[in-house]
Each structure stands twice: as C-alpha cells, then as structure tokens.
C-alpha cells in the first residue's frame, strides 16, 4: 500500500480483508487510535494543560500514579467501551479488569493495555508511550480474570504509540509490523514505515546498568563482553542507550536494530523482572517477532509464557535475533553448569546470585 498516503484505517481494512476478524478488529484498532490521539494531545500540552505531576496515589504495582497515567487510562476506556467490540478491558492502572457499563454491548475482544508507559519521564519531557494488546474473548458475557490469562501467541493484534518529536503508532495483526505517523493537520495516522525489519546483528544494547550486581551471571557475561568491545570475545565495540521508557528503546531497535534487556534481578527476589507480561512484554514481543526479531525471558520465548496473574512480571530480552540467541545460549550454559567463565570467583563475587538460584 502507498507509503505516505495510506491512512491507518485503509491499511487495517486492506490487511484484514477476508480474515475472520476483519471488520470488528479493524474497528477496535481505530477506536484505540482515537484514544491515542487524545493522549497525544494531552502529552503535547504538558505543563500548559496542567497534566504534569503526580496524584499522590499508587497503582496496583505500588508505583506513584502520574496525572497523565490516569487521564490516559480514562481515554482508552472512553474510546473503547461503547463500540460493542470489547467484552472487557484490563490495564496497568486498574487492580481488576474493567467491567463495561451494562448499557454497552459486549464484543468479541479483550483489550489489555499500559496507557502511559514510561510515565516517570513525563515530567522531564522525555518520550513516553501507550502499549496495547488484543485477545479474542470467545465467550458470552463478562470476562473473568482467568479469561485474560492467555499466552501471547493468542494475541490477534498488538501495538504501541510513541509520543516523541512526532507521534507514531506501530502495530501488527500478525502480518508484519508497520509504522504510522500522525499528521496533526488532518488528525490522521499515515503509513510511513511499512514492513519494519530488525537487523539480526547489532552493536547497540539497552539495559539499566545500575542493576548490574543484581543480574544473573549470564546477563553479566553478555554485558561484560559488550563492554570489553574489540579487546574481548566479541571483537567489536558496542554502544549503549537507556531511555527508561520501554516504548522509546523498543522503537529505536525497530528502526536500527539493537537489544533491550530488563532481566530478572536479585534486587527484589519476589519480582521476576520489572516489566509486566500481559500489557508490556507480550504486545512488544509480538511486534518484535513480526519484524524478524526475537523476544525471550532468557530461558524461553516470551509469547509462550502461560500467564498466572494479570499483573505478573517477566524477565525481558528482545531485539536483534542473533543477540537474543546468544543470550539464551549463555542462560543454558549457566543453568547446566558448563559456563566455565562463571567458575571464576570474579562473577560469583560480583553477582548476588549463587549456585542455589540456578533455575
Ligand atoms: P514507568 O512507567 O514507571 O516510568 O516505568 C517504565 C518502565 O516500565 C519501562 O518503560 C522502562 O523500560 C523501565 O520501566 C525503566 O525502569 P528503570 O527506571 O528501572 O530503569
């Protein structure tokens, strides 16, 4: 379809033509687009709209809620609750799934989302985003929590919006990953990045290195080799980036390759990572795989993880396929004890992990 001229609505209608989901799924994604435009407008106003700052409340994650977290959540609910396309919605900002008002028809899908990812960046004017995932409901009546707990391979659509220098949406319905840029003058998203492909190799990695002492040894090994550059096993220098807004780091990887890691760490053993499976890891993993990349927990494909709770966290490593395969090999070698480099006290001393945590 014509880059620079095709609207997101036309693109979705064409991509879904003939599929069992066709009109309803396209209509739902267009409702999500309407919410994204409202969120884009609020984030662009910043202090002038009175949208900055915190509410003094905490979400189910125990994280301080920004005003825009709640306003963005409301925008997603208001845009998608009335069209008869969803049976219910779940969000990072709501402890329990949202039950539609009784006057609204229930539809065939479940919509799960992080309405404003990276919101700790909003007050310092750094790019933030909205992440969404669509599952089939396939039942009559209001969904239970258990109805949402489906592995990522069952997603029928996923995507994100990034509120940056330009506002973009990147989405997939299982037929590649495609990018759209918001033309504010006409208020429409235009296809600008069809068929995004992530290079299999990279020299750029993204991780919050302040957590290094808490990582498992295979992650320490991988990052140590990147830092050693030409002088080490990799034989080439690497670069690093960490925006602390997953959508922004992931978007860079979709544009030019790279690897993003938020691994399990020993900082809080009760949390197997920081990122949430249902509305961060799964939708982004679907996007990445559809662009030829890979998305792993380090020990397996993210999209095959069987959810056990709505807000559960999962280790996340994703991006250039050859790098993810290397990281998974390092985890296998560590778990099997064949990772000779970790026999040295260097890693044991540096890591808060010891033999009894080999998974
Ligand atoms: P916030 O939404 O609380 O800003 O968290 C953003 C995020 O979930 C993800 O977008 C970032 O990649 C990650 O957290 C940053 O985590 P650190 O602040 O620990 O680096």
Quick summary of this structure?
The protein has 359 residues and is α+β, with helices and mostly antiparallel strands. The chain contains nine helices and 14 strands. It has helices spanning 8-16, 22-45, 67-80, 145-148, 217-228, 246-256, 277-290, 321-336, 345-350, and strands spanning 54-58, 64-66, 86-91, 109-117, 128-136, 155-163, 167-172, 178-183, 188-193, 204-206, 239-240, 259-262, 294-296, 316-319.
| Number of strand elements | 14
The CATH architecture of the largest domain comes to 2-Layer Sandwich
Structural class: alpha+beta
Distance between the termini: 47 Å
* Helix fraction bin: 25-40%
Strand arrangement within the widest β-sheet reads: 3-4-5-6-7-8-9
What's the shape? globular
Given as residue ranges, the uncertain stretches (5+ residues, pLDDT < 50) are 354-359
Number of helices: 9
Largest sheet at a glance? Answer: 7 strands, mixed
How large a portion of the residues is in β-strands, by DSSP E? 15-25%
The CATH class designation of the largest domain is Alpha Beta
> How many separate structural domains?
2
Small molecules bound in the structure, each named once: 1,6-di-O-phosphono-alpha-D-fructofuranose
The whole-number mean of residue pLDDT values reads 92
User: SSE order in H/E notation?
Assistant: HHEEHEEEHEEEEEHEHEHEEHH
- Radius of gyration (CA) equals 20 Å
Question: What are the defining features of this structure?
Answer:
alpha+beta; Fructose-1,6-Bisphosphatase, Chain A, domain 1; D-Maltodextrin-Binding Protein, domain 2; 2 domains; seven-stranded mixed β-sheet; 9 helices; globular; disordered C terminus
